[in-house]
Structures are given as C-alpha cells and as structure tokens.
Specification:
It is built from 34 helices and no strands. The protein has 716 residues and is mainly α.
Length: 716
C-alpha cells in the first residue's frame, strides 16, 4: 500500500463495478451472511440496552441525555436510537437485529468510500472483508453491540466528510465532519481515536504533517476525543466497575505484557477465524514467565522493522490498528476484564485497518482470472463462516452452550446458562450449572443468590439456605441477598429469623419495595398484623402498582377487624389487577363480615370464574349461601371445596353442618369425624360432629364432642 506521490499523480483504484454496484453487493452479501441473527432473542445484558420501561417516555429520553447512570453506559445517541426503535417495534427483537445488520452493511459501504477516496488499492475487497469476516458476528448479531455498528457508520462518515474538507477546505465540510465525529463519540467513545488515525493516514499520504493543513483542524477533535475518553472512564469507574476489587489489579508491567498478547491474539483471529468464542478464557499475566514477554517484544520489533524498512503502508495500517485498539489493550480498566481480557467486538473498529492492508495486497493479485476467483472463494468462505457463527447467537442457551464447548472453565457462561434455564422454568437443569459456576468462582455473589433461589424453586429449602447464608457473608451490604435469605428462612418455617433478614435488607435500602412487602408477609404469618400493615403500606407507597402489596394490606387489615379499610385495599389491588382471584376471595370475606352478602356472592363467584379449582372460594361462597338460607347451593359449594381439598378441616366442618341441616345425617357424621381427625384442636369441628350425632340420636357421643369443644374454646 504505497502513498501516491502527489495529488496530480493520484489515480484512484477503480473497482471492476461502479460504486453503486459495490454498495448493492455489500448489502446483499451482509444480509445473506447475517440473516440467521434476525431470529435471535435477547442475550445477556440486552435488556439493559433495549429501553427500560422507566425510560420510554419523553422524560426518559431526557434522562438518557442528562443523567449519567440512567443507562448502562453514557452513550446517549446509542440509547436514543434504542428509544426510537422501541417506539417502532417494542420488545420484538427482529427489528433490532435487522437494524444492526443494515448498519454493518452501511459501515462497510462507507469504509469502501473512505478507502477509495484515499486511493487505497482493493478498497472494495477491504470493505467486503469487513462486511463478511466472522470476527464481526459478535458486534452484528448481539443487540447490545449496536454501539459498534452505529458508531462505525458515524465514524466512517465523519472520516469521509473530513477527507472532503481536506481536499476542498470548505467550512461547511468541516462543520459536517465535526458534527458526525461528535455523534460518533456519543454513540461509543472508542471513536475518539479517529483524529489520531487521520493524522497517521495523512502522514502516509503526504509524507509529512504540517501545522496548518493537518494539525490545526484536528486539534479540536483531539480535545473532544480526550474529553470523551476521560468521561467514559469516569462513568465506567462510578457506575460499571465500582467495587470490583482485584479483577483489575494489574501492575504497569503486567499491562504492557497483556497489551502485546492482546494485539497478537486479535491479529490471529483476523488471519485465521477459527474457534471464535463469545467469552474467551481469561489469561494469567505473569512477568516471571519468560515467554509472556515475547508478544510485547514482537510488537516493538515489527513496528521497528516496518519503520526501518520504510514500509509506510504497512506501518500506517499497524499504527491505525493499534491506536484504534488502544482502549481495549488493558491500559484502561473496562468491565469485561473481570472474565476475559479479549472479546471479538473489541476489535470491530480497528479491524478495517488490517482489511485495508489485506485488500491492497490482494489487489496486486487480482489481475488474473484465477486470482479473482480465489479472492471470491475467500470472501464466500468468510461469509459462510459468519453465517454459521451468527446462528450461535439465536438464543442465550445456544450461545452459552457453544461457549462452554470451547471454554469449559468459563464461570460466567455457567452462571448465565444456569440463570437462563431457571428463568425458563427448567430449574433441575439450572442447578448443576450454578453449582459449577461456584466451583470455578466460589465467592460469585450472583451465583450464590441464583443457586439459592433455584433450590427454593425446586422445593429444596434446606439446600437453599447454605448458599444464601454464604451470600450475606460474602456481600453483607447486598439488600437482595438478605431479602432472599429471608424468603428461604420463611420457607424453612423460621419466621423470626426471616423477619430479621428482611429488616436488614430495608435498613440497607429503605426504598426496597420487595423487602417491605416480604417483611409484611412474614409479620402477618406470625400474627403481628399491626406491624404488617405498616410494611404493606410502605410497599404500596414505593411501588403503587404492585397489587400483591395491596392484597397483603387488605388481609392484615381484615385480621385486625378494620373491615372498611380492608375492603378499600382489596379494591385498590383489583384496580391494578382485575384478574386476581385471591384478592376477590379476600374481598368477598370482608363483604360477608360487613353483612354485604350479595356483594360477597359476586366477589366469590368472580373468583371462581377466574379459577374454578379454588377450594377456599368454594368454601367461602358456601358460607354466604348458608347465611342467606340457600342450603342446596351451600351444599354444592361445600362439596366442591371438599372434593378439591379433602384436607381442609374448615370445609369438612361446613359440609358436615350443611348435610345435617339437609337431613343427610350419616354423611354429616362422616364429614364431622373427618374434620375432627384433621384438626382435633378445632372447636368448630367438634361442634359440627356433635350436631350430627345429636340428630342421629347418639346423645352421649354428642355430649362428649360438645364438651371437647368447650374445653378448646370455653367462651362458646
């Protein structure tokens, strides 16, 4: 790749096809290669990029721009694009994938235009390499990496506009280029390397750099780039990698050795794109191991050799590649370093420099038909590899299983796979993966938390306690850890210990609505309903639309005899969730106790329409029918309740009474005896049996049952 001697001598490399045809072919080839990704779902942190409910309004759009931390990273233009896309197709993923593919195709077309304007031979081939190389799949098939494809479009467009300015020196060209560059920074700050890359390219093209032509126009860009880089580093430190501890604890020497290894790793994947993995193994960097010095020394040696031999084209490509890659070389702390030092998407914007060099080299071989055929086969092969790789991104389970097949020691893939399977209701399959994640990383708080919850979901309460207890030791200031431990303790019938954990969670985070609700439930379980009311009210204040909190509030108010307030709470729950049979059952009980029997019948009947197999609602509706002297209907409801839940002493007791009133005495005795067997401590059961026995003329036995009832409840 030789620089032209002078503008007059420049003869732009004209591709075999006109530029519009090149664009059309790039678009078609990109769509064909990446089409399997269109059917892909959400992966890993995609939910943090697809606009959250609290950011979907116009006010949310304002927060995206004005509130660092409102989004995972402060890339407001990127998240504005997601905001617009959500307006178009909501949570449906094909739209996001298609936009990403189209952005990648446009980026390839713009790269072609940039290289063509610079008279780089093989511009079309370089653009096709960028479009089809499988190392780009991670950036294109993963919704979260729209930051790469969008920023690449803006970066290459800014470069093209600046090259036009450099040739014509019109202010309007400079303004347009600057606007595009700022937009690129707001999509992803790694584009801050563009002005330095342009300076290197101008040095290659012109042989030297002058203040007036080269440095002065790009100084504002350099300043903007530095500001964007510092801003991203600060936001990353405050909101993304805070409290990550030793995950980034590398010495300066280790970082130099790491950088050398990263460079050769990425070049190796460009040269031979085999064994591409979503999460690569994390290396151990040790300066005491002699061979670990070799990659860094090799980088220095190659750069020195290129400079010494004055191979300016290759040196330019190397400098642009390394400079664009610099933010991912380990000198700046980034979140993914906690699980791997390398990822395919990190070299997305750097790879075009290598492709430009390769395109120029291939252009020398394209004079013959055989050479052109070989280049075509190369591009077709890369496209097929990209298409296969894109299929791996169709869903989280496929992606993580593919990752583990090539990186079996990846704790993050084990953890994410386990979490994915548990969320899909496949808890038994999830548990071994979460356990394996903890074997690989024993103090991984997320795995401790999710393993405990998965074991709870599987009904293994005693097994769930150890990981959750360990979680609060590892991360004692994690509110959700204490809350989840409280839930496990409650399931283990240790209510006081559960209450203590919920209270700790609320002390750590007074705005934690789930903890307030769970604490209310635990307090109600032990009969501390006045305290439960306060916690349920707190939960409804923090999350006004959370209907279970209103339901809990209504239940506790009912237990306290505050029936009008209980009815109001139940009605508030139903306004938020009209199809909530438990609330309707609760409300029916309140209405019955208030003497509003027709309303109670309506509430219980509505509950049963929503859930016909609800034994409590059948039993309660039977009591209302009994109070209304509608004995046949009461009998039918009590029989349904007993059929659905034979272990319900209350339903057996009510059925015994109704049967006795209906003259079906033997059946009444049988159900009365069943009630007593189920609940020997229930006075009402003994009384129901006594009434049935009395109707059968078995006075002595009836008197004995009545006496037992008086012993259990002397005031009856």
């Amino acid at each position: 790749m030789k620089p032209p001697a002078s503008p007059a001598d420049q003869a732009p490399d004209r591709p075999p096809l006109p530029a519009p045809w090149v664009w059309a072919l790039l678009l078609a080839a990109t769509l064909l290669a990446y089409w399997p990704a269109v059917a892909g779902g959400l992966l890993w942190d995609d939910p943090a990029h697809v606009t959250r409910p609290d950011l979907r309004s116009l006010a949310g759009l304002g927060r995206i721009w004005l509130e660092p931390g409102a989004t995972q990273q402060y890339y407001p233009l990127l998240h504005s694009a997601f905001w617009i896309e959500h307006r178009w197709w909501g949570d449906a993923t094909p739209g996001y994938h298609l936009v990403n593919i189209l952005l990648h195709a446009v980026a390839a077309g713009l790269l072609f235009q940039v290289l063509r304007r610079l008279a780089v031979p093989g511009a079309a081939v370089a653009a096709a390499l960028f479009a089809l190389h499988p190392v780009g799949v991670e950036s294109v098939a993963w919704i979260s990496e729209q930051k790469n494809t969008l920023s690449a479009v803006l970066c290459f467009a800014a470069a093209l506009a600046y090259l036009r300015f450099d040739g014509r020196r019109r202010r309007s060209d400079y303004v347009l280029a600057t606007v595009l560059f700022v937009a690129a920074l707001l999509a992803k700050s790694v584009t801050a390397t563009l002005p330095a890359a342009l300076l290197v390219v101008f040095w290659w093209r012109d042989g030297r750099l002058t203040w007036r032509q080269h440095w002065r126009p790009l100084l504002p860009w350099l300043g903007l780039g530095v500001a964007a880089g510092i801003g991203t580093a600060v936001v990353e430190r405050l909101y993304v990698i805070a409290d990550q501890g030793s995950a980034y604890d590398l010495s300066a020497l280790q970082r130099v050795l790491l950088a050398g290894r990263i460079v050769w790793f990425y070049l190796g994947k460009l040269a031979w794109p085999a064994d591409l993995v979503f999460i690569y193994p994390r290396w151990t960097i040790d300066a005491a191991v002699p061979w670990q010095w070799l990659p860094a020394l090799a980088v220095v040696a190659v750069l020195a050799a290129l400079a010494w031999t004055r191979r300016r084209g290759a040196l330019t490509a190397a400098l642009v590649y390394g400079g664009t890659l610099f933010p991912a070389l380990g000198f700046v702390e980034v979140f993914p370093f906690r699980y791997s030092y390398v990822a395919d998407h990190f070299q997305y914007l750097a790879a075009p420099a290598v492709f430009a060099l390769a395109g120029a080299g291939l252009a020398r071989l394209l004079a013959g038909r055989t050479a052109r055929l070989a280049a075509g086969l190369l591009l077709a092969g890369l496209g097929l590899l990209a298409r296969h790789q894109a299929g791996i991104y169709r869903d989280a389970e496929t992606l993580y299983r593919a990752t583990l097949a090539r990186n079996p020691g990846c704790w993050l893939a084990e953890y994410n796979l386990g979490t994915t399977l548990d969320a899909a209701g496949r808890t038994a399959e999830a548990i071994p993966h979460l356990q394996r994640a903890l074997e690989l990383k024993p103090d991984l708080s997320g795995a401790l938390n999710n393993l405990g919850l998965a074991l709870l979901h599987a009904g293994r309460v005693s097994d769930a306690l150890p990981p959750l207890e360990r979680l609060v030791r590892v991360d004692p200031r994690l509110p959700s850890g204490h809350c989840n431990l409280g839930t496990a303790l409650r399931a283990a019938h240790r209510p006081e210990a559960a209450i203590a954990e919920y209270e700790t969670a609320l002390r750590l985070d007074p705005e934690y609505a789930d903890a307030a609700y769970d604490l209310g439930v635990a307090l109600a379980d032990v009969g501390r309903n006045a305290e439960a009311v306060a916690r349920f009210r707190q939960a409804t204040r923090l999350e006004p639309e959370f209907s279970p909190a209103w339901y809990g509030l209504g239940s506790s108010l009912q237990a306290l005899g505050r029936l009008p307030e209980a009815a109001a709470a139940d009605e508030a729950a139903l306004r938020r969730q009209p199809d909530y049979p438990e609330v309707l059952n609760n409300l029916g009980g309140v209405q019955r106790d208030l003497g509003r029997l027709p309303d109670a019948v309506a509430s219980f009947s509505r509950a049963l329409r929503l859930r016909p197999d609800y034994p409590d609602a059948h039993n309660n509706l039977g009591t209302v029918y009994a109070l209304s002297d509608r004995l046949p209907e009461a009998l039918a409801e009590f029989e349904a309740a007993v059929r659905l839940d034979p272990a319900s002493a209350g339903a057996q007791c009510n059925l015994a009474r109704a049967l006795a009133l209906a003259g079906r005495v033997p059946e009444a005795i049988a159900h009365g005896e069943a009630a007593v067997r189920l609940r020997p401590d229930l006075a009402a059961a003994h009384l129901a049996l006594a009434a049935a026995l009395a109707r059968a003329g078995r006075s002595a036995e009836a008197d004995a049952e009545a006496a037992a009832a008086r012993r259990l409840q002397p005031d009856r």
